[in-house]
UniProtKB/TrEMBL annotation:
Keyword Transferase attributed: yes
GO CC entries: DNA polymerase III complex
Keywords, comma-separated and alphabetical: DNA replication, DNA-directed DNA polymerase, Nucleotidyltransferase, Transferase
UniProt name for this protein: DNA polymerase III subunit delta
Tagged with keyword Nucleotidyltransferase: yes
GO molecular function list: DNA binding; DNA-directed DNA polymerase activity
Residue intervals of the DNA polymerase III delta N-terminal domain: 65-179
InterPro entries linked: DNA_pol3_delta_N (IPR010372), DNA_polIII_delta (IPR005790), P-loop_NTPase (IPR027417)
Pfam families xref list: DNA_pol3_delta
GO biological process assignments: DNA-templated DNA replication
NCBIfam families: holA (TIGR01128)
Organism of this sequence: termite gut metagenome
Amino acid sequence: TYRLRIVSKTTGFPSRLSVLISNAGRFNNNICYFCSEINRYKFNRKLTYENILNELKSKRYRPIYYLMGEESYYIDKIADFIEANVLSETEKEFNLTIMYGMDVDMTSIIHAAQRYPMMSEYQVVIVKEAQAVRNSDALSFYLQKPMKSTILVICHKNGTLDKRKKLAAEIEKTGILFESKKIKDTQLPLFITAYLKDKNVAIDSKAVGMLADFVGSDLNRLTGELEKLIITLPAKRNQVTPDQIETNIGISKDYNNFELRAALLTKDVLKANQIIKYFEENPKSNPLQMTLSLLFSFFSNLILAYYAPEKSEQGVANMLGLRTTWQAREYCLAMKKYSGVKTMQIISEIRSADAKSKGVGNYSISDGDILRELIFKILH
């Protein structure tokens, strides 16, 4: 007798598992198949970057990894890990094939995948820039009977596979279909601290804000800047500070978007105007479009914070999808300074400033004056 215990959360359990449970009686004569389906559901239900990497580190390999999406960072990290770790240096000489989408079609890729490894348990075939591959649907035929000794890695950047197509279902059935999405601005602080923690390096909270605001969500550029900071850390010191960022990346520790936001939160008119003056004198390091984008993101999130059922730091963090409550503190403080109506007006003014910066209804106002006018309207 086999008993299946299901723990259902208030949100319900995924439809695929529901179907399996409702049809459990049909598997009476093949309980192994039923259990394998349950295990496959458990195996595939959370395809995060971390889970995929942990699986690879445990040497649990799939026949195919189809990596797609707008964020190239995670695609490159997974592909690079497979390239570096699955085969030994000797095995790579005969069993590592790297192809580029502009130079091949799917038939060539399938032929490469169908080869047997030489003096190795596996061969690895990596297809970079796969978005340019012709006749990609032909991959479905290979996936009906993939080579168990081949690890096929397809890197499809700046786009996604249509998940409604048969090919997507075949990939999910056989291996991994992973979408690498752009991370939200609110997730950047956690990414920065986690990345440095993995390198046994701490970082000052102000320094986190400076980096997140200045670099933005381009993870390849962001990790490059973080590596630069790690290399330049003084001997016997393992914490990144605002001073170090100012010296090595070129962001002023006193005059930056992080400090401008802090001045707006406390309604420090003098500090806000000092920062505007610095921005005006250093336009290359502090472009208006970046400042407007960050202000728009902050006040848009502030509007959402007003709809949080509970206005505590935890409640706001839950509403905004923040993983830590300390990120919600600024929004809790801002709600005490700016009403919901005022916040809506601010968002409208930011949109107007953005239009002016692009020449709409503006023939003579400089970027510095546009920002100065906007900050005045926010503070008054």
